[in-house]
Amino acid sequence: MLTDDQLAEQVFKKNVSFENFAQFLPYGRYQLRLARQEMDILVDDIQRVSGGELTYDGIWSYNDFLTDYLFDLREILVQLQNNVDGWRFFDGGKSSHVDSWQIYLLANNLAWQSTISDPGKRLPHKTAQIASIGVLRQAMELRFERLISVYPIDRNGNPPKLKHGFHQTFIASRPDLFQAQGFDVGKLRHLYDWCSEIVHQAYQPYTWLISFGLRRAGKLLHTQASYNGRWSIFNAVRVTDVEAMQDAFESYFLDYFGHGEWKFYREKPEALVDGWTDDMRKPSDEFVAVTNPRQGRVV
Questions:
Q1: Span 63-78, mean pLDDT?
Q2: Crossing angle, helix 207-221 and helix 125-148, to 10 degrees?
Q3: Is pLDDT at 297 greater than 60 in this prediction?
Q4: Where are the domains positioned within the chain?
Q5: What is d(CA 133, CA 194) in angstroms, rounded to the nearest whole number?
Q6: pTM, whole model, 2 decimals?
Q7: Angle, vertex CA 160, rays to CA 194 and CA 155, nearest 5
Q8: CA 30 – CA 160 distance, rounded (Å)
Q9: Quick one: average pLDDT of 195-215?
Q10: Pairing label, strands 237-239, 272-273
Q11: pLDDT at 1 over 90
């Protein structure tokens, strides 16, 4: 019987990938074991509030959670049971991708909760305030990174540890590549740094700063009309030449990140983009050393 410490070591892994089924097998079994363990706990909770039984109302109150559970189990079970004759499960799937816009909506909802004096609300006032700022910082950081959507990895498959603001600094320095609609990306740096300070030092700021910060961040993160009048969650910034922008970021990274050899993976940016095609979503051919390893500086 594995302890929780031993099980955690096996299931909480970053950048999970497998070259073959033999590599996946132990990971899949550990995940299945944990899924059963946590489901048993959930069943006990439902029965406790339902008179010791599994009732329709008790189960339905966990509807969204259980739907996720089934789709997540399918991802594991279809592979584990692949060679079992006669075994079948439901068809379908879910997307686990989360847009930075969705993270921004969460920050707004948390801030809203902090304004309501209602004993039945989910979070206390101060908790909701601090959580909204932390989530807002994450939304901004994610959008800055995804406006570029270039992901360096080293020879061990690890991403670089970039200093706070690395992506935002590049975007602000290249208005020729990023056309912000009605705002200046560089002017959001004060808000971005302020959110990071709250996250790391955990204190309660002046109340009015939160609503003001959410409005300012909304220029980057909220839905808005584009130049052609169509609404989108990615219309805040337009990138007219994705290839040139991503080439420029790779050069910027190699100039300013001071060590290592890196390969780059490219994805479609979270922006209004012109001329994007799926064949542009690709890794670079080989690893490239930083430009000036001694003079280079981590920014």
A1: 92
A2: 20
A3: no
A4: 4-80, 100-289
A5: 9
A6: 0.84
A7: 170
A8: 29
A9: 93
A10: parallel
A11: no
